[in-house]
Design goal:
The chain has 272 residues and is of the alpha+beta class. The chain has helices at 30-37, 74-88, 171-179, 217-229; strands at residues 3-11, 14-20, 46-50, 58-64, 69-70, 92-96, 101-108, 111-117, 137-141, 144-153, 157-162, 189-197, 200-207, 211-213, 236-241, 244-250, 256-261, 266-271.
Length: 272
Amino acid sequence: MATINAYKMDGLGNDFIIIDRRGSSINLTKEKIIELGGRTNIGFDQIIFIEKEKENSYPITIFNSDGGEVSACGNGARCVAYLLAKNLNIKEIKLQTNNRILNAKIIKNFYVELEMGKPLFDSEDIPLSKTIDSGNITLNIDNKTFAGGFCVNVGNPHIIFFVKDCFDHDLKIIGPKIENHNLFPEKTNVTFAQVIDKKNIKVNVWERGAGLTKACGTAACATAAAALKNKLVNNKVDIKFKEGLLNIEIDKSNNIFMTGPVSEIKNIKINI
């Protein structure tokens, strides 16, 4: 059994294992990722691999704790950016996912701003399994009707329901049923969002492939984009999670900027 070095970090409790593959080739099977991701083991929402620099950016490869590869992880990208910035002694860094370039900036110690790009609202871009109004989705789950769902892609697919109380529904029960609904060919992240006022939204999130999560950066971006589209908030809004908040700003070009805290960098060893 080999032992490798890795890092453990989190953003508002949304936690990650980060493995640096810039200098060596380290591969984990899906079964190993699932094993390590279990909360009786190391436990994490996502595991992220840093790849060799390419055209002045650092590609990252992301897997959920269920072993499935995904295209985006906002809080994870902020953590990786912070780790690399410290390692390279720089303040700005570019990360590359399989569908976006993410520009990151260290604002102050343990605070990172990430430019997430533009939200996508068309059915084929989210994607949805049929062409319908992505801003007004109705789903029937367990003989209950969930109306007014808003779908958007911010590097990964999301559906947001704006409700009076975001904790009124048990996401442990309905979250996986919405995630795996046949409307979503690539599954979806699920957010119940409670608009407090024009500058504040409280959320409860079921994360695709990871389950109920303390925080989710892309869900914050998706919620802000959906709320702004529906004129529920201003272009600057705080998205409140159980352990803190992320500030989301959407500029005139519709680019999303996410700013928030990251944890200290913890060095760990993993047996593979």
